[in-house]
Design a protein that fits this description.
Nucleotidyltransferase, domain 5; ATP binding; Carbohydrate kinase FGGY C-terminal domain-containing protein; phosphotransferase activity, alcohol group as acceptor; alpha/beta; ATPase_NBD
């Protein structure tokens, strides 16, 4: 992402006071940025734009209210207008997936349980996927003989890398390039970690639940910096304390709302997200569940850094087919399932619709399309 756009987005998130004109401009700017990225990607890999049937864009999420105060509505805002992407590429584009989820009473996140379940489900072993992005998300997929993807459940556990990145920036470091510096060799302030675990309202809320960087971003980083500073801890100590709070909150959530320590210790734990590069977080998880089998999401054939892209592409295809995605068992509302995403028709819109109707069987409707039960990733030769 161009540095100026990244800077503008971070400024909006930090100030939480962007005027409508700026939001409108950034929405269009992100649409142009995504369209340019698609052209660059296609040229790099020898793909003709005209051969692309459909684009699925998750946008740049800047705010998400999954559990609003009484009298307000669930809402979100993602930057990156789909109509701009469609216009600049000529390709039909599906975007804005979260709004449809929220409209029927769900929280708008997490969004990838179905993809994760299809790729990871196992005949006899519990699968646990932990995604440590800006926020951490966890998904439990029971073995097929105990329900498999029909019994999976997920939620946002709380902090991920957002507050650590915020602290890096506040201390004058670049979170993208300074992860290997001595700033990571700090001492954990356990008093602060225990205080946060005991007092954090979100952590003691039962799933289903979702959160965002509004809670575990700049504000939380500022709070922890203050708590550690009052106790005389250094910058490196503060960042170590944030990392420990992240891992401790994940562990706490798994034990509070998961299937129990014994089941987790005998599970396959699959990880993805930028937090995988934080050695302290990984070590803490492995020490807590020493008998679990740890691995990377890469083992599915989908690289960790492509998981979201594949997920949004899959949801775009399902939207075009008019097929609602199954939802986790702990969702606020199991029915009605909903077809997520907004369509911005491209140049070959009628052709794509014809393909979709042909695939689904004329006159059958989405209820006539069976759910996908297996997803096979073909490795490129």
């Amino acid at each position: 992402m161009p540095s100026k756009i990244r800077t503008d987005i971070l400024a909006m998130l930090q100030e939480d006071a962007a005027p409508p004109s700026m939001l409108s401009q950034m929405d269009a700017e992100m649409g142009h940025t995504f369209a340019n990225a698609i052209h660059i990607f296609a040229q790099k890999h020898g793909i003709a734009i005209d051969d692309i049937d459909l684009i699925g864009s998750g946008g740049q999420l800047i705010t998400l209210t999954g559990t609003p105060p009484r009298g307000q509505h669930r809402s979100n805002m993602c930057l990156g207008e789909g109509a701009v992407i469609s216009a600049k590429t000529g390709v039909t584009t599906v975007s804005d997936y979260r709004t449809a989820e929220q409209a029927v009473g769900r929280q708008g996140a997490p969004l990838f349980a179905y993809l994760v379940g299809l790729l990871l489900h196992h005949p006899t072993r519990l699968q646990i996927c932990i995604t440590i992005g800006g926020i951490t998300t966890i998904c439990f997929i029971p073995p097929d003989n105990k329900g498999g993807i029909d019994a999976m459940y997920d939620w946002d556990t709380g902090p991920g890398t957002s507050m650590i990145d915020s602290a890096f920036r506040r201390f004058g470091y670049d979170p993208a390039t300074d992860q290997g510096t001595a700033v990571l060799d700090g001492k954990v302030c356990h008093e602060v970690v225990e205080q946060l675990l005991a007092s954090d309202e979100y952590l003691h809320t039962r799933p289903p639940k979702t959160t965002a960087r509004e809670i575990y971003g700049d504000a939380m980083a500022h709070r922890i910096i203050g708590l550690c500073g009052l106790r005389g801890y250094s910058r490196a100590d503060t960042i170590a304390t944030m990392a420990r709070f992240t891992s401790a909150s994940i562990i706490q959530q798994m034990l509070l709302y998961g299937p129990g320590r014994e089941a987790i210790n005998n599970a396959d734990i699959v990880l993805d997200g930028r937090g995988m590069s934080n050695k302290q977080i990984m070590t803490d998880l492995q020490n807590e569940f020493p008998n679990a089998s740890f691995g990377s999401f890469d083992k599915t054939g989908v690289p960790c850094n492509a998981k979201k892209a594949v997920g949004f592409a899959m949801q775009a295809m399902e939207a075009l087919l008019g097929r609602a995605l199954p939802v986790p068992t702990n969702a606020d509302v199991r029915r009605p399932n909903t077809i997520t995403g907004k369509l911005a028709p491209g140049v070959r819109w009628r052709e794509i619709i014809e393909k979709s109707v042909s695939f689904g069987g004329a006159g059958r409707g989405w209820e006539g399309l069976p759910e996908v039960r297996e997803l096979i990733v073909k490795q490129k030769a």
